[in-house]
Amino acid sequence: xxxxxxxxxxxxxxxxxxxxxxxxxxxxxxxxxxxxxxxxxxxxxxxxxxxxxxxxxxxxxxxxxxxxxxxxxxxxxxxxxxxxxxxxxxxxxxxxxxxxxxxxxxxxxxxxxxxxxxxxxxxxxxxxxxxxxxxxxxxxxxxxxxxxxxxxxxxxxxxxxxxxxxxxxxxxxxxxxxxxxxxxxxxxxxxxxxxxxxxxxxxxxxxxxxxxxxxxxxxxxxxxxxxxxxxxxxxxxxxxxxxxxx
Length: 246
Prior knowledge:
two-stranded antiparallel sheet; single chain; alpha/beta; 6 helices; Rossmann fold; 28% helix
């Protein structure tokens, strides 16, 4: 079984958010980057579990510059057998999806896994676009995955319950909380990651019509207002005039 796990590099969750002077790009100065947690904890770990149970190989794929290779090596330390870096800046979801799809098309993977979204853009778009490019089924926000022969059974949370789906390989999925438990790379994994293959692939041509025009920070949160218990009129006034439902 050939499993492809697509991993993104994102700013650490504690990183300060700011943008370049003209507001068109994220300011990465001094920012610590990590592997996107949904990709790492759920998609990658579940792929490694399937390999350990059923056999096969796990390939970790990243679209990004050479600076991302530290993050990619972590995927190898967790359990991926090899890694591929498509040497391109991920300019947009459409551009990234095209690069992934063209590589995947040439390799005939049985299953392609993503985290449900990245923690920086929260777009949840790339997995669905890859499935469309490849003309394969797409299951989003899956919380469990089991394989029997050529058929997969998946659960995902829906409002008021759980939906169970069956789909034949190959297909694309995005993994949510519940799919697997986080793994911490051990010393053996870290050492073997240094010798596992990491292949650089050049991007395919793509006419990308999407560009970032402007980024803005949300308004600063207002301070908490404390109202005396016996001043209900003021509380009612504030709820009517100032409280906002988000």
